[in-house]
Amino acid sequence: MTIIIATSPKPYNIEIKLGTVMTNNFCKKIAANYRQTAVITDSNIAKLYLQDFCKHINKHTNLIHYTIPAGEQHKNRETKANIEDFLQRNNFCKDSLLIAFGGGVITDITGFVAATYLRGVKVVYIPTTMLAMTDAAIGGKTGINTKFAKNQIGTISSPSAVYIDPAFLKTQAKQQWLDGWSETLKHALLQNKTELEIAFNYYQQKTLNTEELLTIIKNSCNVKNSTVNQDPHEKHIRKSLNIGHSIGHSIETSYNYQVSHGQAVALGIICEAYISYEMGIMTKNTFKLIIYYFKELANKLPHALDDNNFFENLKYDKKNSGSHIKMCLLKDIGSVYNLQDYTTNITNKHLKKCLDFINNEFISTNSAKQA
Ligand SMILES: NC(=O)c1ccc[n+]([C@@H]2O[C@H](COP(=O)([O-])OP(=O)(O)OC[C@H]3O[C@@H](n4cnc5c(N)ncnc54)[C@H](O)[C@@H]3O)[C@@H](O)[C@H]2O)c1
Ligand SMILES: [Zn+2]
């Protein structure tokens, strides 16, 4: 087993081991000391794993479970209130344990419930998607969406532990699997060429060789965790985790979330590298390498990106201040440019060139034929 120590905002362990979670020993270890355990999951995970998981937990504690409908659109205030009402109805108290059993939607919303219910109860995360294992379950951000934008309300608070078991990945749908890889390659891109090459080669094999995968998951968790540990309040190095996300969020919103987060981030990483190259921050060779690593994940957009939407949505990025568009740009693989205050001197001319680049290179040929 690998144990990674997280320190922010409070210390907790991230334990990674294949084939652990659906066992009696594991369930005893996490649940036996609590009067009651509440498992929060979504409808897809419930169908696949809940019965078996509950069978083990039930032997060691009084078990209750609550299933929310699967999907990002349910990561909202109403679902949070429903979970809280369920806990109240069942007399869930501070001597009890919450278990977030699912993807990033479940860890985000259950983490937020845990942070505010009775002013804080214990929670452990069992992430079941690649994205949740390497990104969402680590770093302490919890939250829900509003009708205005994603992740607008939440806390920074630690779970008591995160248990990662890659065995769950065998049932992931293809797009969710790819979405996880965008963030995993992003973490490797922040490290160095060797790690990027290792992660890329593995992802290209498109197999589930779990030993190799375990190593990549550990590495990816380490990048996120050590970055957060060094800079819990996102003053400098934690900002680097936002690469690809300024343009990525704008793409996601411009297509009304029909383009997945992972695809949008992969294209965002390519576009932000293009801006770095245009601004003379990055060499052409590095820019070409970044295209090589991310173009398959970036895939093709369903139709041309609309100028107005693209610019309007960029303005709403949380990193901006006033009218300044701010981005976290790379100088090179493993090297971020100006971490203190992001990059602020990005002009409309750079952005317009970037938009033309997307519309020339990343639009599905089917859509051009149909048009
Ligand atoms: N807190 C953070 O730091 C952070 C970081 C990144 C992302 N996030 C959040 O994470 C969410 C995205 O996470 P996600 O991609 O895991 O989404 P998700 O939780 O919606 O899961 C994706 C889909 O996969 C299904 N699923 C989950 N595990 C499965 C499995 N093992 N087999 C089959 N199906 C499975 C789910 O039911 C869902 O339909 C977003 O809400 C995002 O904002 C948070
Ligand atoms: Zn992301």
How would you portray this structure in words?
The chain has 14 helices and nine strands. It has 371 residues and is of the alpha/beta class. Helix content is 49%, strand content 12%. The radius of gyration is 21 Å and the shape is globular. The longest helix has 21 residues, at 210-230. Helix 6 (174-191) packs across helix 8 and helix 9 (245-254) crosses helix 12. It folds into two domains: 2-230, Rossmann fold (3-Layer(aba) Sandwich); 237-370, Dehydroquinate synthase-like - alpha domain (Dehydroquinate synthase-like, alpha domain, Up-down Bundle), CATH 1.20.1090.10. The protein has helices spanning 24-31, 43-58, 77-89, 104-116, 130-136, 174-191, 193-205, 210-230, 245-254, 261-278, 284-298, 307-315, 348-361, 365-370; strands at residues 2-6, 12-16, 36-42, 62-68, 97-102, 122-127, 161-164, 330-332, 335-336. The strands form two sheets. Strands 1-2-7-6-5-3-4 form a seven-stranded mixed beta sheet, sandwiched between helices. The mean pLDDT is 92. The structure holds nicotinamide-adenine-dinucleotide and zinc ion.
Oligomer: single chain
Major β-sheet annotation: 7 strands, mixed
- Beta-strand fraction estimate: 5-15%
End-to-end Cα distance: 54 Å
Strand order, largest beta sheet: 1-2-7-6-5-3-4
CATH architecture of the largest domain: 3-Layer(aba) Sandwich
Output the helix-strand order: EEHEHEHEHEHEHHHHHHHEEHH
Structural class: alpha/beta
Shape verdict: globular
**Helicity, as a percent range:** 40-55%
Rg to the nearest angstrom? Answer: 21 Å
Number of domains: 2
Low-confidence stretches: none
Report the CATH topology name of the largest domain.
Answer: Rossmann fold
